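Exam revision sheet. Question 4 asks you to relate a sequence to its structure. Input first:
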Amino acid sequence: MTDSDLCALAAEGDREAEDILIQRYSVLVKKCARPYFLAGGDSEDLMQEGFLGLLSAVRQYDESKTASFKTFAELCIRNRLYSAVRSAARFKHTPLNDYISFASPNFDEGQTRSNTFLRDPETLIIAKERVDELYSALESYLSPFERSVMVLYLEGFSYNEISQTLNKPVKSIDNAVQRIRKKLAKNII
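Answer key, structure tokens:
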């Protein structure tokens, strides 16, 4: 059966057709996931994200469009992986990941620190100071528009979403991202 036939069956709820497509394209998922690194995760987490992208491709594929299923699946897989990597790289989850659980079996009332606690307060303060320095440097190098674009971009918004939020054309957003990258490479990083 062709990919299109299997997608049509999967759209009708045929789980076996879904399974066949997932097995058929598992190598593509591995190939797409190989170059990525997931902060706080491992390669298996990336593989799971890739398979979720493949599953969404199976369920959303429209044969009337000009792209083949393989092309559409690769796009869905890469988008899912990219979103996962960007989400993991955000700073907003850092405090949640750095705190110690009092329910931990390694925690003893006589201890002030668990063996699983990876960062000491000094390291956290230094990291926060470094982030503050970066933000103040960004204030001097980036325009207000570029700062707005960067904040939304780092929060995981797509170019289209940033464009709608800031009421600017997508091309302006892309140009701003390119300028930001050049300025960061030249002045900060």
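Marking note for examiners. The domain at 120-188 is CATH 1.10.10 (Arc Repressor Mutant, subunit A).
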